[in-house]
Amino acid sequence: MALVSEPMACLLFAAVLLALSGLPGLFLQRPVAAQWIAALVAVFASVLGAYAVIQLLGGTAGAVYQLDWPLPFGPAEFSVDHLSTLFLIPLFLVTGCVAIYSLSYWPAKEKNTAAKLTFFVGLFAAAMVVVLLARNGVLFLMAWEVMAVSAYFLLTTEQQDAQVQRSGTVYLVATHTGTMALFVLFSLLRSTSGSFLFPLPHALSAAFPAATIMMVAALIGFGGKAGLMPLHFWLPGAHANAPSHVSAMMSGLMLKMGVYGILRTISFFTEIPVWLGWLLLVLGAWSAVNGIALAASQRDLKRLLACSSIENIGIIFIGIGLALVGMQTASPILVTCGLFGAFIHIINHGLFKSLLFLGSGVLIHGTGSREIDRMGGLAKRMPATSLFFLIGSLAICGLPPLNGFVGELFLYVGAINDGIHAPLPLAALVAPVLALVGGLAVITFVKLYGIVFLGSPRTADAAHSHEAGGLMIGPMLVLAAGCLATGMAPLLLVKLAAPAVSWYAGIEGDLVSRTGQQVPFMPLTVMNSLLVVLALALAAGYLLRLSKLPRSTGPTWGCAYLAPTPRMQYTGSSFSEMVVNLFGALVAPLRRRPSLATFFPAVGTTFCYAATELVLDRVLTPIFSWIGLGFSYIRRLQHGQLHIYVLYIFATLFVLMIWAH
């Protein structure tokens, strides 16, 4: 009984259950029953893991487990600390919600790929748990590779689609390029510390030459997985083409594994170099601005949400960069506010982005399309989804009373404090960057919510759409309630993040609490509560008044048009045109305008608009095309004629003999 209640034992047991949850679907002849068994096992594992996390947050210390495997890499050590605990909070919550959601979104009785999908979802979640618990470099890489490959098989579930195949290939190349960088990191770590075991925090000096290479390798390997610019190019296609509940896990959970890897690597060193903090700050600001600008230009619902993930990862790295800069300038408030902002946003993003991706799955399930401009008027037909999607949209915009506002408020406080007290307040420039990002996020999600849920249906599929069942609505309700509860009670988020902030920054808990008091939590709590009460009162008053009014139907005013149609409504592209033009150099949209010889376009005249990926479509694809063209000429040397191959060998030996003498 003592072993079962020990937090580390619970976490390892939860990982094993998640990894095995999908096995019944591979062997049982009743796929529906197997899917239900897998979902129940995954939910039980998530509850068990959440129980362990609550114990750890309550002060119970986790044990250290060592597995004496026969491999020559030292013991496989498992451990948990405050940093790992922080990332486990959203992991178990989202995994449990996704397990229930998939029963209705990807039912085994309709989808012949359900068994494969269920198996890899469990393996994917288990691998992320092991990544957070592993304290041996080789064990970490094994779990990392299982996570990466599982994500690939989940992404390519609908592998008959050419777009899915392309996105899967791009993801596979990107993730294994990053893994090669991690091989360099852990090889240098082994040569420096003498072991594959993770060193203690701040045990290595950053002054030796290999430290710089290790940090750069970590930025490439982990930054690519996190979607940090300019290594983000795999992310929009992968998240857009995966099943929606898989996208929720990839965006809400897997991206954070990259953030965790960078934070863990930095914790190994003492005397963090000056350039690293400023580099993370600049890359975070670039990702935040560019990511939301890309999102504003998208017409695909899930690509828009995927690009906004780049923005939120940028906000997290802004917080990490502020903290590192604060460490270098001996500014405790900058360190504390930066880490609080980053850590709280890690939890918040896992909640509201998972909620939005699950909501997108309901919309796709109901309308059969991912195109925003083919939807419209869905609020009447999907009232619950409309409400939950509104909560997620307000949260991701950083607006009170939702939780997205809390983490960003810490970043504002840290930046403004630096502007007041620092001799050269460069970090204060974070404040206008965050304001710009917040404004663009509001424009983007007003476009998304307004075009999708308001107005009139633009197509017959949208007009005949329907609300999802309880198995899909229930998980969205849980996540929406989490967004609302943590927004109304921001002290809850602070208490969740405070142990990790104190441990990571090496600052005593009392000092962290005093520094955290710079943020006005009580007025914020009261304001958020009043906003919720006011919103509920207005909604109740509106519904009451609406119920008392006489019912009548008739055509609305058509703005002087005799026969108005849904096509006369704003589209998403027209709504965001000004923003896209403003950031045209970053977004690089593709427009093909017809040539008009007269005042009126001829029949069949078309206008083409498509959002492109600057790094992937304008840089990497042309480079690989030229490389492929070069190798196509070299391929002519391989023609199958044996006597010519003998001539190749003779010529090679002749050149080597001359070279040697």
General description of the model:
This protein is mostly helical. The protein folds into three domains: 1-188 and 202-227 and 248-264, no CATH class; 272-539, no CATH class; 614-660. The protein contains 28 helices and six strands. The strands form three sheets. The chain has a two-stranded antiparallel sheet with strand order 1-2. Helix 14 (332-367) packs across helix 21 (490-505). The longest helix is centred in the middle third of the chain and has 36 residues, at 332-367. The radius of gyration is 27 Å and the shape is globular. The mean pLDDT is 87.
Helices and strands in order:
Elements: H1 2-5, H2 7-20, H3 23-27, H4 31-57, E1 65-67, E2 76-78, H5 82-105, H6 114-133, H7 137-155, H8 162-193, E3 204-205, H9 209-226, H10 235-241, H11 244-267, E4 269-270, H12 274-296, H13 301-328, H14 332-367, H15 378-381, H16 383-396, H17 404-421, H18 430-453, H19 460-463, H20 470-488, H21 490-505, H22 509-516, H23 521-548, H24 572-575, H25 577-582, H26 584-587, E5 590-592, E6 608-610, H27 614-634, H28 642-660
Parallel strand pairs: 3-4
Antiparallel strand pairs: 1-2, 5-6
Helix pairs in contact: 2-4, 2-6, 4-5, 4-6, 5-6, 5-11, 5-14, 5-20, 5-21, 6-7, 6-11, 7-8, 7-11, 8-9, 8-10, 9-11, 10-11, 10-13, 11-13, 11-14, 12-13, 12-18, 13-14, 13-17, 13-18, 14-16, 14-17, 14-20, 14-21, 16-18, 16-20, 20-21, 21-22
